[in-house]
Amino acid sequence: MPKTKISITINEKTLQDIDSITDNIYIRNRSQAIEHLVKNALGENKAAVILLGGKEDYLRISKGEYRPTAKIKNSPVIGLALKKLRENNFKTIFIVARHGLLTKLFEMLKDGADYGVKIIYVEEKSSNGTADSLRLLKGRINANLLVVYGDIIFSRINIDGLWNEHIKRNSIATIMLTTSSKPSEKGTVKVEGNRVLAFEQKPKKSDIYLVFSPIFVAEPQIFEYSGSSLESDVFPELAEKGLLNGHLSSEKEVHIHSKKDVENLRK
């Protein structure tokens, strides 16, 4: 697409903030930095991924019901996710899952028109973890992407805050953070300011209560990192290289792990 040269007036502090995201690798100069920020602010190619990979039996909560298809107050869990994503201007939604679950979701959601989105179904044949599942989208998304795990309810989470935090910072990924009284069941993080210094998945013992909430924003460069698991392989490597940021949420997501979780939410 042809470029147009313009002249603008901007205050010094804002200019410093713009220059701070120039890394000479992905964003090489001030013009690219401004274009990057404007595109993301306007929502160009704003896409979200709902990860539901892995063995289907793990995601099943009864004979004919999966975690994302369970109904809470007349809406399936995944329907609540789609509604939240559309409210935040995500109009293209990729759903990654295996054949049986993907078929069930298609029967329920069709092309997404009823939710005001376009759903693209991506079938996973096999994987050893979340990074393998996400990597199926390599080459299909060439801009920032939001990733959410498909067995959570996140209606109260500030998605815009996470997205905007990411586009202002120089990182490959920005993960949502929350607190947990059981950090050994989560991915724990050591942070300084917004920078994640270390990421450890389900440590046997930890006195760190700041943990990964399974929602994050990433650059498409995340597809280039090896390893089968985001939590065990990719995030620890990004943290070690100073390329992982965190955004603290004042609200918590709700996990759907069992029929009992669904029944508690229906009360």
Structure write-up:
The protein is 31% helix and 26% strand. It has 267 residues and is an alpha/beta fold. It folds into 3 domains: 33 residues; 117 residues, Spore Coat Polysaccharide Biosynthesis Protein SpsA, Chain A (Alpha-Beta Complex); 94 residues, Spore Coat Polysaccharide Biosynthesis Protein SpsA, Chain A (Alpha-Beta Complex). The strands form 5 sheets. It has a 7-stranded mixed beta sheet. Strands 2-3 form a two-stranded antiparallel ribbon. The mean pLDDT is 91.
In total, how many domains does the architecture comprise? 3
Order of helices and strands: HHEHEEEEHEHEHEEHEEEEHEEH
Number of separate helices: 9
The appropriate CATH architecture of the largest domain is Alpha-Beta Complex
Q: What is the level 1 CATH name of the largest domain?
A: Alpha Beta
Structural class: alpha/beta
The percentage of residues in β strands lies in: 25-35%
Distance between the termini: 54 Å
What's the count of strands?
Answer: 15
